[in-house]
Write a structure and sequence with these properties.
Strand content: 5-15%
Shape: globular
Radius of gyration: 22 Å
Distance between the termini: 35 Å
Number of strands: 8
Amino acid sequence: MFTANTMAAISEALGMALPGSASVPNTDPRRQELAVEVGRAAVAALAADLRPSRILTLEAFENAIALTMALGGSTNAVLHLLAIAHEARVDLSLEDFDRVSRRTPHLCNLKPFGKYVMSDLDRIGGVPVVMRELLDHGLLHAEALTVTGRSVAENLEGVSFPAGQDIVCRADAPLMQEGGIVVLRGNLAPDGAVMKTAGGNVRRFEAQARVFETEQDAMDAVTGGGIQPNTVIVIRNEGPAGGPGMREMLAVTAAVKGAGLGADVALITDGRFSGATHGYMVAHIAPESVKGGPIGALRDGDRIVIDPVERVLSVALSDAEIEARLAEWQAPEPRYTRGVLAKYAKLVGSAARGAVCD
């Protein structure tokens, strides 16, 4: 049994208060209510035999993708949803993300590209407001079962669109006609890559490559003034196996913005980004470099094209030249040769399938 002191310490670490205890400073008091409601929901789900396999359907995943697209959410959602679908034995792919993105408008004016933060969205009714707008325009599967035991449509009964605010747009007058994430393909990403277009990153960008073998190498170049405008920064060996574990590139993308290069420099990587990343950035390039992906063939000066409208990520090289370069390229030595991270690097699969271990 946990002692009272242990439970209090756990509660403080989680940023919530236990029932009957004083609220933790600087946290929303609704966290305590939420903790209680989560417990009640778990008990109710058990009583109703409401197993994950009943809820985690393709329709539910498409609803989650649509909400992510409308919010302008993180590219990490692609990894997470693919991985969850894999465990749930639901056939979900990158094509599903792009298909849903093409039909779902971007509705929310949220940072890092917009004016507001999530607490502002919460103030006007929260995520249910966004879902209600999507539902009213036929962009959600209304009958999908949820953890409440009710359908999406039933959960949203009584939710209305708030007037007099510019945090959430109407679906017929969105910030963008398509969702905030697109999937790119081409001779640099045969298995796909992910780009966040929320905030208007929809122009075609073509420039010369500047290639780095690690995130730190790229960071040193940016902070040292070594990156010029009209450059595509390439960071490889940071994918699921190469990382290992796909470190987020938040620091280097922030450094690009801080150097005043946000409009003139793009960044592509087989790693991933933070939800706070903003700019002309492409991640999850698959296959990754250490698995023989074409990103390993790139050299300084190669001409790279990023076109989110046409969904293209390519380099101006022939297939024969790419193959010849890959035959010469040598992957770096593994960062870990023993222990759990070495095992992970050997077992982990492609980011295009959620970076799962089978």
